[in-house]
Design a protein that fits this description.
Blueprint (H helix, E strand, L loop, with lengths): L14 E6 L3 H17 L7 E6 L5 H10 L5 E9 L5 H20 L2 E9 L2 H6 L1 E3 L2 E2 H20 L1
Parallel strand pairs: 1-2, 1-3, 3-4
Antiparallel strand pairs: 5-6
Helix pairs in contact: 1-5, 2-3
Bound molecules: 5-nitro-6-ribityl-amino-2,4(1H,3H)-pyrimidinedione.
């Protein structure tokens, strides 16, 4: 039996960070956290593209086009969905997550989901660089690890 782990070196890898402008105060911090984490793990800053789209619902389509382009080793989705008074919250959360999962499965490109789904702005900021860490950094590192694990197991 062989056990494979993904190492955490990102040198030579290309990333797309797809960011939603909805709640961009929060998403800008997620993007900064993701970029910083990638660079500190060896990714060239020039190998990280950031693509801004209107809202979380636009992220899966963008991810599909970028993943199909062959230009990126991994796609990192960054957004913030805040609960409102209507069912729209559930629609945006569920459809963005389901769409991203589908893109990863359909294209074989690693896609990680850093779309926050929270009740309040405080909860969002807690996860965007204050007391609960930075979810953008977490999902960027998850992309490096997954990519390297899959590559190790299929080399
Ligand atoms: N998009 C978000 O990224 N976050 C939200 O909290 C949000 N809310 O609450 O409505 C949101 N809606 C917009 C949606 O993602 C699309 O941009 C819009 O429906 C156009 O397709």
């Amino acid at each position: 039996m062989t056990t494979f782990h993904g190492h955490m070196h990102g040198g030579g890898l290309r990333f797309a960070l797809i960011c939603s402008r909805f709640n961009d105060l929060v998403v800008g911090r997620l993007e900064a956290g993701a970029r910083d984490a990638l660079v500190r793990h060896g990714v060239d800053d020039d190998a990280i593209d950031t693509i801004w789209v209107p809202g979380a619902l636009e992220i899966p389509h963008t991810a599909k086009v970028l993943a199909s382009s062959g230009r990126y080793d991994a796609i990192v989705a960054l957004g913030a969905v805040m609960r409102g008074a209507t069912y729209h919250f559930e629609v945006v959360c569920n459809q963005s997550a389901a769409g991203l999962m589908r893109v990863g499965l359909d294209t074989g490109v690693v896609v990680t989901n850093g779309i926050l789904t929270v009740d309040t702005m405080d909860q969002a900021f807690e996860r965007a660089g204050s007391k609960a860490g930075n979810k953008g950094a977490d999902v960027a590192l998850a992309a490096i690890e997954t990519l390297n694990a899959v590559r190790a197991a299929t080399a």
